[in-house]
Design brief:
The chain is an alpha/beta fold and 457 residues long. It has helices spanning 24-30, 66-78, 88-92, 94-98, 113-121, 171-175, 184-191, 211-226, 244-252, 267-272, 276-283, 293-307, 325-338, 355-363, 389-401, 405-419, 422-455, and strands at 4-10, 37-43, 54-60, 83-86, 103-105, 128-130, 154-156, 159-160, 180-181, 198-201, 231-236, 255-263, 311-318, 342-347. 42% of the residues lie in helices and 16% in strands. Helix 7 packs parallel to helix 8 and helix 8 runs parallel beside helix 9 (244-252). Bound molecules: cobalamin and iron/sulfur cluster (SF4).
Length: 457
């Protein structure tokens, strides 16, 4: 008898991001599906189609893709194919998600499959809600990456959770306030096929905070070095700049860039969002020349990391009650002046599952409490105190405009000069240009919707 086909689906993303990385969430789940099923991963974000002989569709859903996932699920169910949702959004908007799928999985997915498939086989899937609980990462299996195609960069997860609990982020609420680590032997096994390739560590903070995390990060650098990668990138926080030993080990192991959440130059915003790690760094720093304490702390961290041959990919949030046109002009000036290699400047989007979302709903601040259900995913979801609709759109254009093609090329040359690391230059150039290109395509398709959302508020 032919095996039944299970399609694991990453729905289309209205913001047009992330398609080139494939879905590690799905490849990870695939490893826990018994081999008497024929499993395929379908990345709709890069145009892949769902096979006709699919018997069960399991869809990964985040807030950005929720509406597309709901539409897809309804279509599949009309065609007689049962559907299961998992991922961040159904984990936090569970009752909403249950309206659109046969079954919903809340939280980590690894241990759910035996029960779920048993229910599928016996026709008991409809209406089920699964809450498998916290997964012990020592039980991790090798993700089935062969199902992901050949992404531009291989993704690898070595830890989950974050103790820092920033109010705009759902990671602490979802994955816990303690780091959960994948045993290093398993990480080593996962790294083995990546020799000569690029790797993106999707850990929320591969360095973390505290002595134990620093020690673990050192061991991880040792494995990354041994793996002989072309290069790797990872997400971390500003405190890594205080540890020259780890920066040296990171560079030796092929680090090309760190994503760092600077978030804002405004102390009041950092304070309001509980981004204490940045404030701590600022309070250790003296305002110098044109820089405030926060700016001096950020610029110092950028310089230190670059001096170790690693690019800095800063991320910032704008469009908050703490911003004015002047402060945003200052941010653009600072990004240039500090010499960071890339800056992602995105509007504050209160995502469900975060403290900011709960606060904004309570305060009645959002234009629409379920904005992700709108036909076009909105860029702006509320009106900040000191900025008009026009100010928001103008600033969106200016932040993205910093990375048009000539600027991206010039930026890559500057990264090369600062870091002497061709991989850092290549990856920052590609990221800057990719960001510009995806935003301009999004804007072309959605300009009316952007105007309408803001025009009516
Ligand atoms: C890597 C990453 C990216 C990458 C790649 C995304 C991709 N193609 O997969 C990039 C950089 C492109 C990216 C972009 C964005 N991201 Co992102 N990203 C992540 C990150 C750091 C890791 C995701 C990952 O691969 N984890 C590893 C896998 C193994 O774990 P997992 O996804 O948690 O999946 C587990 C469970 O959720 C469950 N599960 C997941 N899917 C399914 C499906 C089924 C059927 C089942 C049963 C179980 C299940 O099982 C898995 C194993 O336990 C997460 C943070 C995080 N900790 O998850 C943020 C995160 C997912 N991103 C987030 C956001 C906001 C974005 C952006 C909107 C950013 C922006 N532009 O403003 C975009 C949107 C792009 C998109 N396509 O949706 C938010 C989502 C919040 C939300 N409510 O949706 C997160 C949670 C970070 C945060 N700070 O809150 N992102
Ligand atoms: S933004 Fe980063 S540091 Fe803050 S809680 Fe989320 S993962 Fe942790």
């Amino acid at each position: 008898m032919p095996k039944k086909k299970i399609a694991l689906i990453n729905p289309k993303n209205p913001l047009r991001e992330g398609a080139s990385l494939g879905s590690l969430s799905l490849a990870t789940n695939a490893a826990f599906i018994p081999d008497n099923y024929d499993v395929v991963v379908v990345n709709q974000a890069s145009g892949e189609k769902i096979p006709r002989d699919t018997k069960l569709a399991a869809i990964t859903v985040n807030t950005v893709t929720a509406r597309n996932a709901y539409n897809l699920s309804e279509e599949l169910r009309r065609a007689g194919i049962p559907t299961v949702f998992g991922g961040v959004h159904p984990s936090v908007q569970t009752e909403e998600a249950r309206k659109y799928a046969s079954a919903v999985v809340v939280g980590e997915g690894e241990t759910v499959w035996d029960q779920l498939l048993d229910d599928f086989e016996t026709g008991k899937l409809e209406g089920k809600l699964y809450t498998p609980g916290s997964f012990d990462m020592a039980e991790s299996r090798l993700p089935r990456r062969e199902l992901m195609g050949q992404p531009f960069m291989n993704t690898l997860q070595t830890s989950r959770g974050c103790p820092l609990g920033c109010d705009f982020c759902s990671v602490t609420n979802l994955y816990g306030s303690k780091y959960k680590y994948k045993p290093l032997e398993l990480v080593e096994e996962e790294l083995a096929p990546f020799k000569g390739r690029r790797v993106f560590l999707v850990d929320d903070n591969f360095f973390g905070v505290g002595e134990a995390s620093a020690q673990r990060a050192k061991n991880l650098m040792g494995l990354l070095k041994k793996a002989n990668l072309k290069s790797w990138m990872g997400q971390t926080s500003i405190n890594i700049a205080n540890n020259p030993e780890i920066l040296g080990l990171a560079r030796e192991s092929g680090a090309a860039g760190f994503y760092i959440g600077f978030e804002s130059l405004s102390e009041s915003f950092l304070d309001a969002m509980s981004k204490r790690i940045n404030l701590r760094q600022a309070r250790k720093t003296i305002a110098i020349g044109e820089y405030t304490e926060v700016e001096a702390a950020y610029a110092g961290a950028v310089r230190t990391i670059q001096d170790h041959g690693i690019g800095v990919f800063g991320s910032f949030i704008y469009g908050t009650d703490h911003d004015t046109n002047r402060s945003l002009d200052r941010l653009r000036w600072f990004i240039g002046k500090s010499g960071m290699d890339t800056a992602y400047v995105k509007p504050l989007t209160p995502l469900p599952g975060t403290n900011v979302y709960d606060d904004f709903v309570r305060e009645g601040k959002l234009f629409d409490d379920t904005y992700w259900m709108q036909d076009n995913y909105p860029v702006f979801t509320f009106k900040p105190k000191n900025l008009s609709a026009k100010d928001l759109t103008r600033n969106a254009e200016r932040f993205v405009g910093m990375y048009n093609l000539p600027n991206s090329l010039w930026g890559a040359a500057k990264t090369l000069a600062r870091t002497k690391n061709p991989e850092a230059a290549f990856l920052s150039g590609i990221s800057n240009w990719g960001n510009y290109a995806s935003y301009t395509a999004f804007r072309r398709e959605n300009s009316d919707a952007i105007r309408d959302t803001l025009g009516s508020h």
